[in-house]
Amino acid sequence: MGARVMTDGGIVVHEGAKAVASSVLEALLKFGLLDGDQGTHVDRKSVARSRYEAGERIMRMFIDAGLNQIKAVDLDSTGGGSGAELSDKAAAAHRRFNDLVRVMGPWMGCLTSVVLHDQQPSGNEAVRNVKNALDRVCVHLRM
Asked: Hey, which of 24, 61, 93, 112 has its CA 20 to 30 A from 102?
C-alpha cells in the first residue's frame, strides 16, 4: 500500500502511513524481532529467517488443509451434513497440522494468534514466546 497524501489547495494536510509488511510475522522479521540471540549478525539473521519460514510453513499447512475457509451449510437441504470430503492432499495437510498442534501443546496458541490470525504480540515476553514456539516448530519440522 502506498502513502496517501491529502491536500487542501496544494498544502499537505495529512499524509497516510505506508505499509512495510503484509503480515505481522513479516513485520517481526523486518524489524529484527525474530533475530537470534547469539552469534554473529549473519547467524542471528539466519535464525530469524528460519523462524519466519517455519511460520510460513504453518500457514501453508493451514491453507492446504482447508482450515482457512468459511463453510456455511443449509441443514434443511442437505440432511444434516455437508457431504464434502477432503482431497488426499487436504487430508494429509490436515493430519500434519493436527500433529503439529499436538506436539506444540500450549505453545500453539501464541503461534496461531500471530501466524494465522495476524495479531501483534503485546510486549517483550509475548515476542519471546513466539520466538520459542517457532524454534520448536523448526525442530519438529526438521528445518
From this structure: 24
